[in-house]
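Long-time lurker, first post. I've been practising inverse folding by hand and with some scripts of my own, and I keep getting stuck on stretches where the structure tokens seem ambiguous. Below is the full token string for one chain I'm working on. Before anyone asks, I'm not after the true native sequence, just a reasonable design that respects the backbone. If someone could post their per-position residues I'd love to compare against what I wrote down in my notebook.
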């Protein structure tokens, strides 16, 4: 079984007498380490085969501690190593089979194929267009449309940040409810404004010559990003008059 690092998702779990948890309880368990995680993200990871919770006769998801542990690993590898979901799934499956599985990273493309290289620490992945299409399960036309609305954008060198896979998955999931990409332009504009506000606050720290101060700027950016996500969620819930689990 995978081992959860200290402070990971497997600690402080509120479980039922059977040891199984609802998706709301799982969300609360993960919230301290992953404040940006939503129920939709957990459902999306399930649809991608990263986790397989049990189902009650009435169709409700029930998560075991092992499910939460695995989910924490998935989220950690997305956050810290920017790995595509397919790579994460293969890596965790190999670990559970007891195989030696050094953590891979997305390297450069060679002859149209992505080269995965083992790494020692966090790295920022760059995903080619073909890999993004494959990881998200979408076609060229869909990606072109999403780019036209600013939902996904290539980096200056023509490739994509690995977070584009997460964005693509969420756009697809919203589409199941009839929310089209063109409807999401307002969300993108709001996100850009929030990011601009955070960047305005930390900009003086980023420009500092002291490496420790710049490192502090990165930590402050993550903290502010988490707070803006929480505020955004609270405002949406208030506007809709609902309370998410």
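-- Answer (accepted) --
I ran through it position by position. Result:
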């Amino acid at each position: 079984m995978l081992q959860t690092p200290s402070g990971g998702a497997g600690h402080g779990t509120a479980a039922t007498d059977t040891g199984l948890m609802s998706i709301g309880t799982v969300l609360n368990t993960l919230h301290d380490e992953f404040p940006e995680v939503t129920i939709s993200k957990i459902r999306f990871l399930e649809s991608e085969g990263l986790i397989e919770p049990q189902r009650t006769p009435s169709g409700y998801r029930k998560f075991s501690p092992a499910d939460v542990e695995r989910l924490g690993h998935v989220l950690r590898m997305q956050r810290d190593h920017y790995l595509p979901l397919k790579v994460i799934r293969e890596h965790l499956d190999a670990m559970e089979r007891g195989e030696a599985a050094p953590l891979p990273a997305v390297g450069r493309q060679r002859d149209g194929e992505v080269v995965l290289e083992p790494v020692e620490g966090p790295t920022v992945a760059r995903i080619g267009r073909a890999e993004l299409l494959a990881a998200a399960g979408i076609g060229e036309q869909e990606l072109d449309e999403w780019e036209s609305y600013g939902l996904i954008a290539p980096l200056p060198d023509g490739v994509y940040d690995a977070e584009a896979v997460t964005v693509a998955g969420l756009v697809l999931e919203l589409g199941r409810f009839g929310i089209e990409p063109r409807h999401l332009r307002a969300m993108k504009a709001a996100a850009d404004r929030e990011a601009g506000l955070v960047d305005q606050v930390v900009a003086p720290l980023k420009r500092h010559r002291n490496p420790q101060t710049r490192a502090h700027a990165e930590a402050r950016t993550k903290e502010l990003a988490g707070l803006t996500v929480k505020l955004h969620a609270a405002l949406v819930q208030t506007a809709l008059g609902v309370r998410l689990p």
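A couple of notes from the structure itself: The beta strands are 54-55, 61-62, 104-110, 113-118, 126-127, 160-161. The CA atoms of residues 1 and 96 lie 6 Å apart. Happy to go over any region you disagree with.
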